[in-house]
Design brief:
Layout lengths: L1 H10 L12 E3 L5 H11 L2 E5 L5 H15 L3 H9 L6 E6 L6 E10 L2 H11 L4 H29 L20 E7 L12 E7 L5 E6 L5 E4 L5 E3 L7 E5 L1 H6 L9 E5 L5 E8 L6 E2 L17 E2 H10 L14 H6 L1
Parallel strand pairs: 1-2
Antiparallel strand pairs: 2-10, 3-4, 4-5, 5-12, 6-11, 7-10, 7-12, 8-9, 8-11, 13-14
The protein binds gibberellin A4.
GO molecular function: gibberellin 2-beta-dioxygenase activity; metal ion binding
Family: Belongs to the iron/ascorbate-dependent oxidoreductase family. GA2OX subfamily.
Protein name: gibberellin 2beta-dioxygenase
Length: about 325
């Protein structure tokens, strides 16, 4: 309860405005690629409509995941205790460094082997129902992530359309999938404030594709540092620029800080696909995106180096800071 009180005082009086100007991009329109580029540059966050993924695919997985989240806490904790690694069911502990939130979640590697393993871990009876719902959903959002990245490459006038998407097309990609459940927090009824569900952070990967039920709670930080609330939309997907894409575009695209606040009365479920390269792959600014004389802002790194460093920092830390080149200093030398 101490944590709750601390967090309440932290969040009191912070009421970010609803951001109705979230770039909303209709993927069936011919101008979508230039709008995607603009949104990634200015906000690092956008919504896509006409994405071709049936609502049924989203609802099916959400309801299968809710079957697990609705089990008695003891059963879920047994599943957590039996986990051989960080994948599977988790509760309240978000990051390896003590970051906590009012959240429970399922974390998977976005490949068939992990989907099948976790399905068996969670559902002793009939694991195939969750397994097939998760496989269908993950393959659909992976394709959507690739489509969006290919449109972005087009919009940036890069000949090789797969320049970004190729990173997670290979067998060994380190892409993840996470289903977050933010249970309502009735204690908040008494005090007019919110509680942190998932603390502020950027996503380390190339791109994230997020879908939530129709409960709000997600907030993003704009360029000027103000926090705005994202209106929920369960039929659309939100695209989040990750650190790796910011690096590849040498800072042109913005890896956006975001966080989730829990609600007093409504349960929020979000499902996020995180598109990442293989651990041995190298991420660095792409020379073909740099203007003549433009300096590289980042030191290159392998994906495993980056994730290793990510696990050593807390959520709110500026994870990319350790890989920034001090361009100004170099000029002065
Ligand atoms: C934050 C964003 C995603 O939820 C996540 C998280 C990941 C994890 O849960 O394993 C991390 C966290 C997230 C950032 C720093 C590292 C990695 C926990 C952690 C301490 C799945 C992701 O990719 O990065």
């Amino acid at each position: 309860m101490v944590v709750l009180v601390d967090q309440i005082s932290l969040m009191r009086n912070q009421k970010p405005s609803l951001f109705s100007d979230i770039p909303s991009i209709d993927l069936s329109k011919p101008n979508s690629k230039s709008l995607l580029v603009k949104a990634c540059e200015e906000v690092g966050f956008l919504k896509v409509t006409n994405h071709g993924i049936p609502l049924e695919v989203m609802d099916r997985l959400e309801s299968e995941a809710m079957k697990f989240f609705s089990l008695p806490q003891l059963d879920k904790e047994q599943a957590e205790a039996a986990r051989p690694n960080r994948f599977g069911y988790g509760n309240k502990i978000i990051g390896g460094n003590g970051d906590v939130g009012w959240v429970e979640y399922l974390l998977l590697q976005a490949n068939q082997k992990s989907i099948s393993q976790i399905s068996h871990q969670l559902f002793k009876e009939k694991p195939d129902v969750f397994c097939s719902a998760a496989s269908d959903y993950i393959s659909s959002v992976k394709k959507l992530a690739c489509d969006v990245l290919e449109l972005l490459a087009d919009g940036l006038n890069i000949q090789q359309r797969t320049i970004f998407s190729k990173h997670f097309m290979g067998e060994e990609n380190d892409s993840l999938f996470r289903i977050n459940h933010y249970p309502p927090c009735p204690e908040l009824q008494a005090v007019d404030c919110n509680l942190i569900g998932f603390g502020e952070h950027t996503d380390p990967q190339i791109v994230s594709v997020l879908r939530s039920n129709n409960t709000s709670g997600l907030q993003i930080s704009l360029k000027d540092g103000t926090w705005v609330s994202v209106p929920s939309d369960q039929t659309s997907f939100f695209i989040i620029v990750g650190d790796a894409l910011q690096v590849m575009t040498n800072g042109r695209f913005r890896s956006v800080k975001h966080r989730v606040l829990t609600s007093r009365a409504k349960s929020r479920v979000s499902m996020i696909y995180f598109g990442a390269p293989a651990l041995r792959e190298r991420i660095a600014p792409l020379p073909l995106l740099m203007a003549e004389g433009e300096k590289s802002l980042y030191k290159g790194f392998t994906w495993s180096e980056y994730m290793e460093s990510a696990f050593k920092t807390r959520l709110a830390d500026n994870r990319l800071g350790a890989f920034e080149k001090n361009v100004k200093l170099i000029d002065e030398i």
